[in-house]
Request: fold
Amino acid sequence: DQQVKQNSPSLSVQEGRISILNCDYTNSMFDYFLWYKKYPAEGPTFLISISSIKDKNEDGRFTVFLNKSAKHLSLHIVPSQPGDSAVYFCAASVGTGNQFYFGTGTSLTVIP
Amino acid sequence: EAGVAQSPRYKIIEKRQSVAFWCNPISGHATLYWYQQILGQGPKLLIQFQNNGVVDDSQLPKDRFSAERLKGVDSTLKIQPAKLEDSAVYLCASTPDLTAEAFFGQGTRLTVV
Reply:
């Protein structure tokens, strides 16, 4: 049972424009959400997180939005850069220090 | 700060053979995870350690998979015997206490033929 879903396997965006990656979850107990970025042949790298007490968290070009009622979160990258081309995984956990449930990933391509 | 170290990077074995993977987490990180990532899917937890104790191994196929973290530092994951469906990337991750963001190693890509 896939508790975290990323329904878009791929996304292409022009350099300088906004990239929006989406993630849906089914478990209402999830209260911590993370985005990871993965380059080929490397492990996932932590990008940004948000707890359920917030609806937005921003870090430079990256902003994560959380809509608890819709069980939906999104990652906005503005402006997109070619170096952002990677696979992005959404993950969720119940509390901290517990296992992460990952989505299947969205492959982002930023076109120069 | 050194990252999570894993070895080997790649391994090809025949089905029914045995294989072992090694992970050295970031120094001081009490929590260690082993994840399995099958092609086209997200990482799935196999086992979680807190120091040298198992916190969660509910998704570990215990008839063929085993893992240990004897001294609460590095860890070994073993598959015996391997099946074709075990072909995947095995990722090790660690976190310090009371934080959520896990740091991942580069992974070991296993191919079972």
